[in-house]
Amino acid sequence: MKTSMTNSRAARAVPTAPVPEGGTVFPFADYPAAGTATEVADGIFWVSLPVPFVGLKQVNLWLMRDSDGWAMIDSGYGRPAVREQLGDVWGTVLGGRPITRLILTHFHPDHAGNSGWVCERWGLRPYMSQGEWFAGNMARLDRDTDAFEARAAFYRRHGLSDARLEKFLTEALPYKDGVELPPDHRRLRNGDTIDIGGDLWRVVVGEGHSPEHISLYCAERRILIAGDQILPSITTNVSTWPVEPEFDAVGAFMATCRTFLDLLHPDTLILPSHRKPFRNVRHRLHELDAHHAARLNLLLANVPRETSAGEMIDVLFTPGLDGHQLGFAMGEAIAHLNHLTALGHLQMAEERSRVGYRRVGGMDAKVAPAFS
Ligand SMILES: [Zn+2]
Fold this sequence. Notes:
single chain; alpha+beta; Metallo-beta-lactamase, Chain A; five-stranded mixed β-sheet; 15 strands; 19% strand; disordered N terminus; binds zinc ion
């Protein structure tokens, strides 16, 4: 049911606006230095903290001036050195006023890592979606991200070689090494509005990267706190996980991109969780659409009569991935194969020990970008 639903969403006919001219524009040349913050809009401060993942380098947090203190978006990866940097930032930005709210975009360790510590420090209960709350707790109970044996079995069925499985099992970083969660949460739902410093921010729930990812949009000020849902320069990880093996994560992610294309004013300032704030979001959304279409077509062109995700990661990714990246690469490959299945180009052939994908139709099949 799920796949056919996302299929119809992804494939629906779309009235198209012309692709905006020019590329993304980055109004701020430099990242804020360690222990400091950059004011990117009146009362909104940009904080950049280090993360231990190869290639990702850093994560952004946002401090927002509120009526009786400060609201903080996300909490950084859970490490003593990161907490020390965060303490320095508080010392320079808060002006002696307290953090009164912590809002988490999603459960991933670079976002929720220090949430337990922040909530303890300021006496808070974090605002987050319930899907993210459950996902974080499942991961900490070894039932999701940290279910390494189950993940390895899943990747083995999807054709990952023994050598790569070994690499994954020895090198993947456990979620709970970088995360302490608070004991409870305050639920945010899609469409809720939050008043921060007199501005109304609308909660937009997105799918495809994490279960119920939250972005915040202030239409009045034309600012989006995007989380990981819209990133510049790099693309968001869109993975299928063993707990929902048939999930069409690519279809769900692109449906969320479509929501943003319809919702956001073209001049919106985007505050992403990684890399730098940027403008010209419509251009970026069209770029992401073209990127995923190109990846899907690359797969289609390389699928013989039948294939597996394990074979296709060599088509999708350059060699040399470490064990942590291999897990994400398999998740992405399965997600793209599931999307091609949802679009009717492939058929999933699931056996007890093996999951393959069979080609349906001719070798000249193509996927068109969804937005044009
Ligand atoms: Zn994330």
